[in-house]
Amino acid sequence: MSFNVPDLRYPYDALEPHIDAQTMAIHHGKHHGAYVANLNKAVEGTEYASWAAEALARDWAKLPEGMRAAVRNNGGGHYNHALLWESIGPGGGGRPSGSLGAAVDRELGGFDALKAELVKAGLGRFGSGWAWLSLGPGKKLLVESTANQDSPLAEGRSPVLGIDVWEHAYYLKYQNRRADYLEAFFKVIDWKAVGERYAALMEA
Ligand code: MN3
């Protein structure tokens, strides 16, 4: 198979009580698993099976029309979730430091403003989608939201941190309380990992 669900570097219960073990197990095993299975099915036997997930999430519109929707949804789903698992972890929370912390202060008015913008983007996304901290034109930080499994990559931006606001990310524990989930999500963000991603994008 071309694509695989990456192993987590922490157990499913490592994010308790903020994100519960059952949600993590279903989200990682079943939901991400289904995106990967459906992506593999869509690209099987084609040249696109050898593309990187990032390239598929960015350039799905260049694919043959019959594959486009499946790759947009499932390639995006795979890429977005792989990024998500790397961006959270036990002992998370706090705020970014180093070059990312400085850029947040300089470009977005500080961490509290960033958090407020991300929460607003997450709450404002009607239905399913993501809230993002992205690197935009001129490698400046911006906050945005995408629908479904669309990636900022397809819009020419680079995701630094993604927050999954699909109900499957929080419904078991938080039901309809997306605001409570977003508050909890900030307690599991691994800002060291996110900051390393930002630094690598700035050097690229
Ligand atoms: Mn999800």
How would you explain this protein's 3D organization?
- With 204 residues, the chain is mainly α.
- It has two domains: 68 residues, Helix Hairpins; 106 residues, minor pseudopilin epsh fold.
- A three-stranded antiparallel β-sheet has the order 2-1-3.
- The longest helix has 23 residues.
- The structure holds manganese (III) ion.
- The site of manganese (III) ion (MN3) has 7 residues, from helix 1.
Order of helices and strands: HHHHHEEEHHH
If you average the pLDDT, what whole number results?
A: 97
Name the hetero compounds present: manganese (III) ion
Radius of gyration: 16 Å
Do you know the CATH architecture of the largest domain? 3-Layer(bab) Sandwich
Q: How many structural units, i.e. domains?
A: 2
Q: Based on DSSP secondary structure assignment, what is the total number of beta strands?
A: 3
| Uncertain runs | none
Helix content: 40-55%
End-to-end separation in angstroms reads 29 Å
CATH homologous superfamily title of the largest domain: Iron/manganese superoxide dismutase, C-terminal domain
- Content of β-strand: 5-15%
Structural class: mainly alpha
Instruction: Tell me which oligomeric state these chains represent.
Output: single chain
Supply the number of helical segments. 8
Walk across the major sheet and give the strand order: 2-1-3
CATH class of the largest domain: Alpha Beta
